[in-house]
Amino acid sequence: MTIFPFTEASPVQFQAPLPKTSDVVIVGGGIIGVTAALFLARRNIPVTLLEKGRIAAEQSSRNWGWIRQQGRDADELPIVIEAQRLWRQLAEECGEDIGLTQTGVTYLARTDKEMADFAKFLKVAEAHGVDTRLLDQGETAKLIPAMSRSFKGAMTTPSDMRAEPWVAVPSLARLAARQGVTIIENCAARMLDISAGRISGVWTEKGRIATSNVLVASGAWTSLFLRAHGVSIPQLSVRTTVAATAPMPEIHAGAAADERIAFRRRKDGGYTLAAGGSHLLYVGPDALRHAPKYLPALKANPFGTRYLPAAPRAYPDSWSTPRKWDADKQSPFERMRVLNPVPEPRALHAIDRGFKELFPQFEAVPLRASWAGMIDAMPDVVPVVDRAAAVPGLVIATGMSGHGFGIGPGMGRVLSDLIQGNEAGHNLHRFRLSRFSDGSRILMGPSL
Ligand SMILES: Cc1cc2nc3c(=O)[nH]c(=O)nc-3n(C[C@H](O)[C@H](O)[C@H](O)COP(=O)(O)OP(=O)(O)OC[C@H]3O[C@@H](n4cnc5c(N)ncnc54)[C@H](O)[C@@H]3O)c2cc1C
Q1: Which pTM was predicted?
Q2: Residue whose CA is closest, atom 12 of ligand 1?
Q3: Cα–Cα dist 217/282, whole Å
Q4: Is 225 near ligand 1, meaning CB less than 6 Å away?
Q5: 385, 396 Cβ separation under 8 angstroms
């Protein structure tokens, strides 16, 4: 089986020199940082995007490629509806095929309880004019006739889309660079420079850059980076494994999942697969520190997480990862340019079994590639998108919780306005940083 296309050995594509000054500095070259930079550049705002490894080499290329409105938190839904519109527009502007296709997303149900959960989301979708609908047993079988098993029913959203993550996000970065964003790979932000109580610059491994506005969109590394500046955020990371089949006859043009297997047609004619529902948490100091905040999530899904007592060396929440460092010395971010977890054999086995159980006619189709990613998780499964009140000039966007690819361009546009001091265009109260420290009750987002 081949390994993932992005590693530290991948050629550097973006190597602009570090400017002395920039109106905005963005830390992290995933979908969130790239699209926020793009929308800022469109307003003629000088913006520098720092990426410690390669653009999109972490979550933003490793994901399943689902661009879904279906199953979203009610406060995310308007942003993802905007994102769908932006995806179409950006796909045109990229000038290369990023695999954007409207082929729908479907969740398959085996039980009445699952159908009842779907019905709850249906009300949210209807309130926002999204075309989600419920299917009965016969309609479900008709939608994906190749399935060997019959289901109680399904929820489907025909207007949902898919794209090829490891093509799309680098392509968006090239578009951003063409529109004026200074992008620098292999350039970790080590620390914020804070003078007179507000941001005055960023220390990077290539020197200092003066700025008064920083967006931290560092995915799985965000809580480590922020904690060094006294900002505590209960973001952890969990490992999930993905596999890809070789090209094969079409069984379904879109994306679908039941509780055992998730599958999505790719542009090359293969399927991207994952085993439903289970991920792995490496216990480290942050996991222990924030454990009480995760109790509601644990209660909602007691068997959804498996645990290992320690992360590999240099992972964000590894026991040996330094929590403090100096601006003029190597930081934890340079020690791990690309977080490239090993796929879990047990998960690969579950993927293989789950796919072949549902589609026994494809017994001979091999898994051609496998990889894993660290998802930046939050206790309530919705992100933080907010200004940090304690550090004027700092904006945070993290904890997309396994669904930040689809909503990415919408969040990027929102962040560009937040940074400029404009109206965000959506209610961001749900995504405020203070919800974890002001005594608010943790309100779980949907686990759909
Ligand atoms: C296996 C898997 C499947 C998923 N499936 C889907 C899906 O189907 N649909 C969906 O919508 N979402 C999905 N997601 C979630 C989605 O991929 C993420 O929510 C999204 O990519 C997050 O983007 P980001 O820009 O916030 O973070 P990332 O893509 O993780 O980018 C953060 C970047 O910051 C860089 N960085 C960190 N610290 C520093 C520093 N100090 N200096 C410089 N750079 C730094 C990192 O190297 C990294 O490249 C999935 C995720 C995974 C892992």
Answers
A1: 0.98
A2: 403
A3: 22
A4: yes
A5: yes
DSSP 82: H
Ligand 1 pocket residue status of 63, Cβ below 6 Å: yes
pLDDT (tens digit per residue) in 241-298? 999 999 999 999 999 999 999 999 999 999 999 997 678 999 999 999 999 999 999 8
Is the distance from CB of 424 to CB of 414 less than 8 angstroms? yes
Q: Is the CB of 245 under 6 A from ligand 1?
A: no
Kindly give the residue spans of alpha helices, DSSP state H, lying in 236-322.
285-290, 295-300
| Residue-wise pLDDT tens digits, 313-325 | 999 999 999 999 9
The dihedral over CA atoms of 19, 22, 24, 30, expressed in degrees to the nearest 10, equals -10
Separation between Cα atoms, residue 10 and residue 401, nearest integer Å:
26
- DSSP assignment of 111-125 equals SHHHHHHHHHHHHHH
CB-based contacts of 246: which residues, under 8 Å, 6+ apart? 270, 365, 366, 368
pLDDT digits (tens, 9 = 90+) for 381-395: 999 999 999 999 999
Q: In this predicted model, what pLDDT tens digit does every residue of 96-113 receive, in sequence order?
A: 999 999 999 999 999 999
Using CA atoms, how far apart are residues 415 and 394, in angstroms rounded to an integer? Answer: 12
Place of tokens 């942003």: 79
Q: Ligand 1 in contact with 209 (CB < 6 A)?
A: no
